[in-house]
Amino acid sequence: MDDYGRIEKAMAYMVENAARQPDLACVAAQVHLSMYHFQRLFRRHVGVSPKRFLQALTLERAKCLIASSASLQEAAEGVGLSGGSRLFDHFVTLEAVSPGEFKKRGEGVTLTYGIHPSPFGAVLVATTPRGICRMAFIGAAGIDEQLALLESQWPRSRLVLDAEATQAPVEALFGGGASVSSTLSLHVAGTNFQIAVWRALLAIPEGALASYGQIAQVLGKPGASRAVGSAIGANPVALWIPCHRVIQQSGALGGYRWGVARKQMVQAWESGRHAAKESESEPGRLSLP
User: Fold this and answer.
1) What HEC string does 80-134 produce?
2) Which of the following is catalytic: 26, 64, 133, 243?
3) Are strands 85-87 and 90-96 parallel, antiparallel or unpaired?
4) Would you say 119 and 166 are in contact if contact means Cβ atoms under 8 Å apart?
5) Distance CA 112, CA 129 (A)
6) pLDDT of amino acid 58
7) What does the buried/exposed string (b/e) look like for 7-20 if buried means 16 or more CB atoms within 10 Å of the residue's CB?
8) Quick one: 5 exposed, middle or buried, by C-beta within 10 A (0-12, 13-18, 19+)?
9) How open is the CA angle 13-243-200, to the nearest 5 degrees?
C-alpha cells in the first residue's frame, strides 16, 4: 500500500469511528505504522495532524458553520458572480463553454488528461487549452467510466494522456511542491443555471459551509434548493469547484457525487488546514499537535 493509500484508509477509519474518538495508536495500527511515522506521514500529505482532523469530524461544528455563514451573500457580491471568483489562496476563473464550442462538441480540441494520487483516492484531471474541464475521483468502476463521461461531453475531441501536464492543479491542492502562481482557469460546459451555481460555490470561503437554501438565496431563487442540489451534483471539477462545502440546513451532509464518506473527509481536511492557517497567523496562539 502506498502513502496515499494509507492516508485514505486512515481517514476513512476516523470518519467511521469519529464518535468514539480513536487515539493516535489505534488509527496508526489500522495502516500498520508506528505512531511516530504515521503522524509524520499524515501531516506531510494532509497538512494537519490526525488529532485536528478528527476534531473536525463533528455534526455540531457543521451546524455552527451554517449558522455563521450569513455573510455568504456579501462574499458572493464581493467576488462578483458574473465573472471570475476567488477560491481560498488561489484565483480561479470559471469560463463557460460558448454556444459555438458546444455545437462543435469538441471538434478540433485536444484534451490532455492524467491520473494522479490524492489523500482521497486517485483523481482524473483533464484540460482543454482554456483550462481544466474535468477533475473527478475514480470510483470502483475504474478509469474507463471517467474517460467515457469525458468523451460523452467532448465526443469529437482528441484525448492525449500526459500526466505531467495535468499535475500542477493537484499539487497546488495537496502541497506536493508546485503552486498555482497565476489565475487557474476552469473551462466547463453547463446550463446558465448550473454555471451560476458553480460560480456561487467559489464564493464560499475555505473552512466555511453553506446550505442549499443559502446558495439559492444568493442566486435570487429562494425556492430553488432542489435545483441547486441537482446543479451541485453535476459539478465537473471536484475540489476546485467546492461542492463539498454545501450541506443541509440541519447540518447533515446531504449527498455527494463521489460518496458521502469522502465528502466528510474533504470537509475535515479543509477545516483542519484552515484552522492551522488561522492559528499560525495569530501570534501567541497555540496550535494543536
Assistant:
1) CCCCCEEECCEEEEEEECCHHHHHHCCCCCEEEEEEECCCCCCEEEEEECCEEEE
2) 243
3) antiparallel
4) no
5) 9
6) 66
7) bbebbbbbbeebee
8) middle
9) 155
Three-state SS at 246: strand
Residue 66: what pLDDT? 55
Cα four-point dihedral sign 230, 236, 237, 238: positive
Residue 243: Cβ-neighbour burial (10 angstroms; 0-12, 13-18, 19+): buried
Task: Kindly give the confidence (pLDDT) of every residue in the chain, 289 residues in length, as a single tens digit, with 9 standing for 90 and above.
Answer: 788 889 989 998 998 888 788 999 999 999 999 999 999 999 888 878 898 888 777 655 655 555 555 455 554 554 444 333 443 334 578 888 888 887 888 888 999 999 999 989 899 999 999 999 999 999 777 889 899 988 988 999 999 999 999 998 888 888 644 444 456 889 998 999 999 999 989 888 777 888 898 899 888 898 899 999 999 999 999 999 999 999 887 767 788 888 888 888 898 888 877 776 666 555 443 333 4
Known active-site residue 243 = yes
Q: How many Cβ atoms from other residues are within 10 Å of residue 250's Cβ?
A: 12
Sheet (strand 110-116) strand order: 85-87, 90-96, 184-188, 131-137, 123-128, 110-116, 158-161
DSSP state for residue 226 in the 8-state scheme: H
C-alpha to C-alpha distance for 147 and 289, rounded to whole angstroms: 41
The alpha carbon of residue 114 and the mean position of all alpha carbons in its chain are separated, in whole angstroms, by 18
- Distance, CA of 147 to CA of 140 (rounded, Å): 14
Nearest to 30 by CA among 58, 56, 54, 8: 8
Alpha-carbon span 17 to 242, nearest angstrom = 25
- Tell me the CA distances in angstroms from 68 to 9, 114, 210, 211, one per residue in order: 32, 38, 9, 11
